[in-house]
Protein 1
Amino acid sequence: LPGQSIKAIKNVTINEPFFQGHFPNQPVMPGMLILEALAQTGGVLVSKSLDGPLGDRIFMFTGVEKAKFRKPVIPGDQLLLHCFDFKRRMALCKMRAEASVAGVIVAEAELSAAVVDGAALS
């Protein structure tokens, strides 16, 4: 639903630099990078939920809860990133996030974020 959920796609290829050391002869996408992809997807959802442009405000990822990694993600996989059950109260946002490959959930978490005035960070 517009403003309440978002889906994005990440094509996982062997030429990703992290595969060189994670792990030799057994390439697996690091779980933290799957979470980062979900957080970036959620960031787009947050920015689209705002009244007007982001302007000088900054989207800040503030937390992750109940993260679970269910299956490894390997080169050739296509990650479907889905953020949903979006709730916003003032500057605070929460959402559920799932990453799946071929219809199978490979990772999930609850994400939180805040939209803050960039000048307040200096």
Protein 2
Amino acid sequence: EISTIFLNIAKTIYTKILFFIVFTYIRFYLYYQIIYKYLNTTPNNIIHYYIIMLFSLIFTVLNCIWYKKMLTIMFNYKKMHNINK
């Protein structure tokens, strides 16, 4: 939810870049550290363990889809505004 702050105020290129950076850090670094630590513990309930594994897999697929859309938007914005020049 931290990246939502930047998403709601993403009016300039700088806030859009901040959103992208925060989204990347939280969704592709921090989340996987938490899941890794949880899955490497001894499960109290094996059913909950497999449910967490399933939902982390689903969440990973959704993160990849959203990330691909974000990259497409950023590349299109870059092409449209010729940021390199």
Protein 3
Amino acid sequence: LKSVDLVLIICPVEAFELAALNDTLNIVEMSQTPSVIIINRLHPRSNSSSALEILNEAGVEICPHILRERMIHKRALWNGETSMEQEIDSPASKEVYLIWEWVKGVING
């Protein structure tokens, strides 16, 4: 972890993953490497503010863009592709693009 510029902690907002988050955050904190949380697989009809509220307690910067759970991700996985390769203009692809642009901004300061 000490050799990277930024640790991306990809976190679904589900009980099992949230229980493991503290251990992950402790390891990252020991490395003294900057980190951010990206919310993953949020149900399309779930309220993102609730997910953000839960994760705000972690004390780590959270990406304002959320990757929602969508069928295109499953279809793309079966084909060995990404959602952007499947449908460049899909909502899922737009979410990935926004997250990537945000991460680049964090890295470049």
